[in-house]
Amino acid sequence: MTDLSGKSIIVTGAAGAIGFAATQACVAAGARVLLVDIAQDALAERTRTLKDQGAPVESIIADCAQEADVQAYVAAALSAFGRIDGFANNAGTEGRLASTEAYDLAEFDRIIAINLRSQFLGLRHVLPVMLDQGTGSVVNTASIASERGLAGACAYNASKHGVLGLTRTAASDVGGRGVRVNCIEPGVIQTPLLDKMLVQMFAGGVEEGSQVLGRVATMDRLGQPAEIGAVFAFLFSDAASFVNGAAWAVDGGALATIRN
What we know:
Layout (H helix, E strand, L loop, with lengths): L7 E5 L4 H12 L3 E6 L2 H13 L4 E5 L5 H15 L4 E4 L15 H29 L2 E6 L12 H21 L4 E8 L5 H10 L3 H10 L10 H12 L10 E4 L10
Parallel strand pairs: 1-2, 1-4, 2-3, 4-5, 5-6, 6-7
């Protein structure tokens, strides 16, 4: 089992399905976790659930695309735990679907801010803490859309390609100084965020979309948030000490083939 005993971790987007799964996996492995999200009610519910289970967690409301809020969650983690050993740079959203030539500019800017600017700001303010400590692990949330095009999702695709670039650059910047930066590329994962996209993409809504997209993976099913959370926990652990600058596709084999 992954061991994160004594480690302190920040998870952004912690009220969402993947962020909460990452939080649960880290807590189960022995970590203390600061949950960060802009969704106040959902964040409070997630935090209450964990505290009722005796988990060593705290939370803070933050818009991860705003620098002052990022500085606030970094300060909150240091105040609560004294250090930051792991950072799940996970906040993100799917955005509306439309062809590139018809994509709304304001929506494009919104998605880039939430999915890419937030990742940069997280790196900008967490990495100095880790470098001062001489140790730490960052895991950014990318996507299989970091590697492929997806019709109708120019903003999402651009943002997730950007996350991959940020990951590789940051890993090069801090390599050899005790800090690692990697990213996870989730495939088609069964989450409320996916459901919103399926309603836009398929006449039959979530049911039809789940059946169709489940066949994208060679395993013929959608992935589960817990399967992503487990990889976050591993990458934060000392067992991943030689993993840096990597993009981990957790996608049931989707990127490995041209099957569909």
